[in-house]
Design brief:
The chain is 0% helix and 55% strand. The protein has 139 residues and is an all-beta fold. The chain has one domain (6-137): Lipid/polyisoprenoid-binding, YceI-like (Lipocalin, Beta Barrel), CATH 2.40.128.110. Strands 1, 2, 3, 4, 5, 6, 7 and 8 form an eight-stranded antiparallel sheet that branches. β5 (60-69) and β6 form a beta hairpin. It is elongated, with a radius of gyration of 17 Å.
Length: 139
């Protein structure tokens, strides 16, 4: 089998997270504002995911890897759906994937929160990760 290298196409990819806010709505965010309360991007400028395995599970795939946030590394499993391969008008071969998973943000030292008078908390510990990723085949 041919060994192939694929590179992420950031222009045609997005990664989002979803958390419960005030226990009544789900908000969607992207990694643009990284204040000290959560990510402290001035001290920890990178969030790193390093794949350790990628295996077929039925019609889809399981991607397992080490996720590092604020110098804390935990193993994470993401469910991946292969969307297909296409060639763009410039002759570039592209592959698309949809991924989904969840983490507990407190496992990574993201502990800020506030109690609500209703008994809940402002931000849920569970964070859903969603991605639409496109990769370009390298020659």
């Amino acid at each position: 089998m041919e060994n192939t290298t694929w590179t992420l196409d950031p222009t045609h990819s997005e990664l989002q997270f979803k958390v419960k806010h005030l226990m009544i709505t789900t908000v969607t965010g992207s990694l643009k504002e990284l204040s000290a309360d959560f990510f402290d991007a001035s001290t920890y400028p990178a969030i790193i995911f390093t794949s350790t395995s990628f295996n077929k599970t039925g019609d889809n795939y399981a991607l397992v890897g080490d996720l590092t946030i604020k110098d804390v590394t935990r193993s994470v499993k993401l469910d991946v759906e292969f969307a297909g391969i296409a060639t763009d008008p410039w002759g570039n071969t592209k592959a698309g994937f949809t991924l989904a998973g969840k983490i507990n943000r407190t496992d990574f030292g993201l502990t800020w929160n506030a109690a609500l008078e209703t008994g809940g908390v402002m931000v849920s510990e569970e964070v859903r990760i969603l991605g639409e990723l496109q990769f370009v085949k390298q020659a």
